[in-house]
Automatic annotation (TrEMBL):
GO biological process: regulation of transcription by RNA polymerase II
GO cellular component term, pick one: core mediator complex
Record-level Gene Ontology MF annotations: transcription coregulator activity
Main location: nucleus
Species of the source: Plectus sambesii
Protein name, UniProt field: Mediator complex subunit 17
Assigned keywords, A-Z: Nucleus, Transcription, Transcription regulation
Subcellular location: Nucleus
Length: 240
């Protein structure tokens, strides 16, 4: 709040009718009743005016007065200094903001300006070259990882196909959709791949990121065919 606003606010609180009288008009600038221009103010009126002045002086805060504009400008300067200190702190960390040398247009020395421009261009060129080198290194690393993954996948695929071909040399194998089935029956004629004589062929799972190159196939045999057979052979010495 400025000083003029504060004075206007206090002026609205003064009971002018009590000071100049109820019968006085607003055009009477002397504050006296009609017909009493020659008479001076009474003691009661003087006391009321003095009381109003004291009340105004008492209510006048430290923010009002002739020093208000000075305090306002000092406060604005303090805010600008705070912003400048924050900017310097961020620039010193060089994490979010970095200061770069630029040419000063107000400098009259053209040699200094040219040197600053050259330094700024060299700095930008070095920064761009370093950024391109970092990006190239990251792309090369990603390409190497991708090549290794493709090589491992191709090797695992070759081993899988080789073992599947070896399995087909001994058993009947066929693919239905995404499922590979094998036939345990030895029928030459008639129905083949009966449900109780088939087994599933799957790719062996990867354990801890490693694939066993010697066992890339996994065969799942029905439980009713999982039986243990024992062959006993006894040799007796005969009488000749």
């Amino acid at each position: 709040m400025v000083f003029s606003d504060h004075v206007a606010k206090l002026a609205h609180k003064i009971e002018w009718r009590e000071l100049i009288g109820a019968s006085a008009s607003y055009d009477d600038t002397n504050g006296v009743e009609p017909g009493a221009e020659s008479e001076g103010p009474t003691e009661a009126k003087k006391a009321k005016i003095a009381a109003a002045t004291e009340e105004e002086d008492r209510r006048r805060g430290p923010e009002t007065g002739p020093w208000q504009s000075v305090a306002k400008y000092l406060h604005q300067s303090l805010q600008q200094i705070g912003v400048l200190l924050d900017s310097l702190a961020v620039t010193r960390q060089q994490q979010y903001l970095m200061a770069r040398p630029v040419a000063d247009p107000s400098d009259t020395d053209q040699v200094v300006i040219t040197q600053q421009e050259q330094d700024s261009k060299h700095f930008q060129w070095i920064v761009k070259r370093k950024a391109l080198a970092d990006a190239s290194r990251v792309l090369e690393q990603a390409l190497e990882v991708r090549k290794q993954q493709v090589t491992d996948t191709d090797a695992a695929q070759d081993v899988f196909l080789k073992q599947l071909r070896s399995l087909r040399e001994r058993w009947r194998v066929k693919k239905i959709g995404n499922v590979i089935l094998g036939d345990l029956g030895y029928r030459i004629f008639g129905t083949k791949f009966l449900p109780n004589e088939t087994f599933d062929i799957r790719r062996a799972p990867v354990v801890d990121g490693l694939l066993n190159p010697h066992a890339s196939l996994q065969v799942q045999v029905p439980r009713d065919l999982m039986r243990r057979a024992t062959i006993s052979v006894s040799i007796e010495k005969g009488i000749v």
